[in-house]
Amino acid sequence: MRRIYESDALYRDDDEPGAPRERQRETRPQALRSVPSGSLSRWLVPDRVRYWGLSLEVETPRAEFRVGEHVPFLVTMKNSLPFPVTIATRSPLLWTWHVDDHRGASKLPSEGPPEEERGFQFERGERKRFRKRWDGMFKVAAAEWERAPPGEYTIGASLNVDGAVEKGLYSETTVTLRPE
Fold first, then answer.
1. What is the pTM of this model?
2. 64 and 136 in contact (C-beta within 8 Å)?
3. Superfamily classification of domain 37-178
4. What backbone torsions phi and psi does residue 134 show, to the nearest 5 degrees?
5. What is the 8-class DSSP label of residue 44?
6. 175 near 67, Cβ under 8 Å?
7. Is 110 exposed, middle or buried (0-12, 13-18, 19+ CB in 10 A)?
8. Which pairs with CB-CB distance under 8 Å and at least 24 residues apart come from 29-32?
9. In this predicted model, what pLDDT tens digit does every residue of 18-54 receive, in sequence order?
10. What residues does each domain of the chain span?
């Protein structure tokens, strides 16, 4: 190899575009290392600012439905801050929904998800939408469902954090079930 470099068989020229260039001995970083935005959010942004920047809304296409009719609803979460934020949740279940304080429309006592803290990340200005539906029934046993009678019901959703209502990470809407 040494003979090739000493014999000028390999032509090097900095001015000619097709020829290899002379090696530069100084080292320059090729790219900046990135810091994950979730970590940056946890380190630099106070919790109250992260909670203040998030909003949650539950909406249905109309306010009245017939008994036995499916009730579709849309849960919209939005980060209005100009930077990404990460919210620490109590478990891998990032958010929950309920009908009249029955989580997932189930009247059974639930064990709940494991207590493992997770992060729910929102990019700057990000809007997350989740479409769900309540079939107008409540779970009363492992394999038994009971149709909800006519009346008013509250459908709500919240992020799975302690004190979601006080932190503004909760929303609800009311629907009316009419007789068939």
1. 0.73
2. no
3. Immunoglobulins (2.60.40.10)
4. -105, 130
5. H
6. no
7. exposed
8. none
9. 665 565 556 665 555 566 666 777 778 888 888 899 9
10. 37-178
